[in-house]
Specification:
The chain has eleven helices and ten strands. The chain is α+β, with helices and mostly antiparallel strands.
Length: 363
Amino acid sequence: MDHGPVEIAAIQPGCWHLLPIRGLRLTESNLQCSEAIWGDATVFSLAEARLLVKNLNLNERMAKGTDHERTMLFLIGALEEQGPHMTARSPKERPDAYIGVRRRPESSPRGGRVAEAVMHRAKLVEAALCLATINASNNGFTSACMIREGDSPLVSTAMINVPEGNFHVTFSASSRPIVVAPTKSRVIARTELASIGSRSRWSKCIQMLLQQENKADPPVFRSLRRALCVALSACFEHGAAGGLLGIVTALEILLSDGDFRRLEERAASMLSDEPASIALLSKALKMRHEYVHRGASVGYNTTVETLPVLFNICEKMSAAHSTLPTCTHLWAYLDAKRAINKLNMLRRSESVDTNALGLPPWH
């Protein structure tokens, strides 16, 4: 049995790890199985995933008598036609596309640093695509990105190593998200992926999430990436309470040094030109306190309305990263801004001009 590498033009080192997503489909006129749009990550259509599997030449290299290629396609949800022993998945279970992350193959299929790095990177891409395509609906949000397979209780994750000609499929538990894929999946051309989210009001956050992580990135980017992944994972929680806890946790990552009171004050300083958002955030923080300490119920609408407020805070932080490169710089600026505002109220005749500090206004 030949274990030599399978040749694909312009294939790069490492292998592709595929994670299924719902709600976003690519046009399939130009199949690209080696191109990574965002350095080490991309999105594959179902047809491209099938091409990756085909290039493994499983039926030629593995034991005769079994259609190994068909088995692999069934496991990752990319099987097209019905068959006598395996049927194609129903539309509710079939993924629309895959997030592909390129990493070197893992020595142990059970997990380790490579698996953690793959999921971390996939979550960043998931968060960016979710943010770029999120839309408010009558009951929460719809978004064209979830690492889910609809109503299926399991999510399959495939590692396809074309150069070495092997694969590995694992399964993990899934939960029904409160942010759901639209009834009709969004269809875009592959060429649109590079500029996806460029017209969004949160475009800076989207591009930060999509770009490959670099040691030269400002430290605030690490905090923003972590906070946005937490927040957007909260969108996928089953209930409003889990979503609200996720949003507040994201705020703590960005604005809290351990003092919860300071968190609300700093958020208010950032949102000084958005009084409605300040009131909404205050309500959400109070509701979180009542839920955690008294077991009170959490209003679904409050969770839904608070999420864009968090996105606005993240976008402002991302825009100001060159001036405020760390969360510590941000906290110092917001605390000083609040102190100056108090001083201005006390000394109307000798007000201090905050613009003279040379720091970015929040608008």
